[in-house]
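Board notes (copied after class):
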Amino acid sequence: MDNEFYGWHRKILWVDLSRGKHWVEEITPDFALQWIGGRGFAIRILWDRLEPGTDPLSPDNLLIFAVGPLTGLPLPSSGKLVVASKSPLTGGYGDGNVGTKASVQLRKAGYDALVVTGKAEKPSYIVINNNEVEIKDASDLWGLDSEELDNELTGRYGRKAGMLYIGPAGENLVRFAVVMSEKDRAGGRPGMGAVMGSKNLKAIVVVGDGDMPSKDPDKVREIGKEAYSDVKKSPNYDHWMREGTMGILAWCQEMSVLPTYNFREGVFEGADKINGAVMADLFKVFQKGCPQCNMVCGNVGEAKEGRFQGIKAELDYENVGMLGPNLGIDDLNDIIGLVKMADNLGFDTISLGSTMAFATEAVEKGLLDPKDLNGVKPRWGDTDSYVNLMEIILKGEGFGSILKLGTKLAAIKLGDGAIDFAMQVKGLEVSAYDAHVAHGMALAFGTSPIGAHHKDAWYIYREALRGFDVNDRKKVEEIIELQRIRGGLFETFVTCRLPFVEVGLNLDYYPKLLEAATGHYLDMNRLFNMADRIYDLIRLFWVREFGWWDRKMDTPPMRWFKEPLTTGPRKGAHLDINVYNQLLDWYYEIRGWDRNGIPRKSTLEARGLANEAKMLEDMGIKLTP
């Protein structure tokens, strides 16, 4: 490797399941520095290599697993990879990240990304052992849940192996099925598991023995050691290690942003029974984390009584929020059971909780007959009914065949205003923060590049500190800055954002680490420009696939505008559409997009995307100068 191009292997492994072939393509230094890795590689590959209009569940769709130049190195929480594809849930760009040994093993095997195309004739799995690649028969693995499959593959390939796989939800093409790893780690909320299932691909096993290329490995270790030390010195470290993301639940209750009864309310009467302190004191049995992490977030709880007694599940705020208060459930024993079922089956817990809440409200309003759910009548707080509903969605029985497509399409099918309480943006269900009081978080959901997710800009905490009623241009600038950092930098490096977010690790570490790994120093201005280029190209991908765009696609559910909170300290609060539209105007202006949310031609040319602009114009999509 020449002295100017460290940090990457230069290799993208392609596997065509239809032809049973694999090959390696090399990347250039310019490609690497323009797109860095992870999400950047994924959107560039999708734009260049996916035919516009491709059915997300067709063999022609691409399923991409991409790491970055910092992945797996001895620095805080670097054991991540990005999984991306054209989403069967939204029809646009979809991705997610997974903390898994597979990320480290992929780099050790010598690859910067894996791209899977085609469809196997029968259930199959891929085994990557350094430069040896095999497509194997998975007929005996099809139908296994996450825990069963992980145990079986570990028995075959050892604990060193990194594994990515789907559960029955992915096999059954549930549009919000995820890619699973290590039994309860998940990524790819917009249906990446369904894409994997559509290819008859049950699992990917990766084993590598090589080195990860760095220009100055000693410098990486030196800076990484200092960063590890800073993580542990954080004033929030002990609390984080005790409660993890569950620590935010009590705060959400206090702020009236806890999703309750399908986001009708922001406070839950049973919140004090299921918060982080209760989890840590009464249910927590051990912790687990991703590779290279010294602030592990995986708090595993064990159900102590009831129908799920003895069951263990990894608990975080999102899955507890969506399968707890959003369904009216205030018993962690039951929530643990639902989380474990969802993980074993390969559902995204956020979209699952939202979809089951939507169905509950549709039944409650008389829009959906329990007869169409095989006689199951979902009721707030009734865990048994949700266990049964989960099975109906998994199997696609009755109206379950519509619910498995997500809340947007289910609402369109039901009509009668159901779309107003389908809690989604662009087809992806809102994650666990009610935004009745929070115009900024609503904007973060509305402009997330994959649909309504907090991953790119978890703004709500900062918004509360500034004041929920302060809705100025600075709020929008801060949201875009967070998107650049969380959705741009961390999703391309690829490392976990939580050291920065939760314990305040200084962002200045990352350009230094990138320089030690690659030999190239990119200051924050260059990194932010790279992040903006990625956001622009993701937006262009959406526009290309839809053939149009307008600001309604960047607007959160009408429930938050039309239906004020009826309980709690912020009773009567709701979003103001005029305030939201002003924030959205500023957002478009700062990003250099037109008033409908399409990047301006001048913006694209300034970011090196003139050819992409021309492609859209050749398709008949007029761009604003």
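Comment from the instructor: The domain at 244-429 is CATH 1.10.569.10 (Aldehyde Ferredoxin Oxidoreductase Protein, subunit A; domain 2). DSSP finds 26 helices and 17 strands in the chain.
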